[in-house]
Design goal:
Layout (H helix, E strand, L loop, with lengths): L7 H23 L33 H14 L6 H7 L7 H10 L6 H10 L16
Length: 139
């Protein structure tokens, strides 16, 4: 008996195509996420909005008051991320002391890095996800 299998290259192409299809489906699902009321812990009009921009558009780290208000609002709504350690993991911060890093962002002793902040903004529907174009498939 002979079993014809696709080549590794063909298998990789199928996996790549499926991952793209899954990503498109997730983006469409994101549009129907539950809407929640805005945070009311801080008056955002008192702060510049540069923390909502992309790096190439003039992004600046958010004021600690914004970080604290956004994080607290999120943690109140999503109790499964109610601890700073759990929020840190969600935001891609791993290792010992990850909860201390979240607290440092909240109290302003450390500026919130762009990647961490952008991920949070995407997770909370404040900004769209960036889609990076594939310039070529180099396998």
């Amino acid at each position: 008996m002979k079993i014809d299998l696709p080549s590794i290259k063909e298998q990789q192409d199928v996996v790549f195509q499926q991952a793209i299809a899954d990503a498109i489906a997730q983006l469409k699902t994101n549009l129907t996420a539950t809407r929640y009321p805005s945070q009311d812990l801080v008056d955002e009009s008192l702060f510049p909005r540069n923390h909502l921009l992309r790096e190439s558009e003039g992004w600046e780290a958010p004021a600690p008051e914004i970080v604290k208000a956004y994080f607290r609002h999120f943690q109140n709504l999503f109790t499964e991320y109610g601890t700073d350690a759990k929020l840190a993991v969600l935001l891609g911060i791993h290792g010992s002391g990850n909860d201390r890093r979240i607290r440092a962002f909240k109290d302003g002793s450390k500026k919130t890095p762009y990647g961490v902040w952008r991920r949070f903004l995407v997770l909370t529907g404040r900004v769209p996800q960036d889609i990076i174009p594939v310039l070529g498939i180099l396998r």
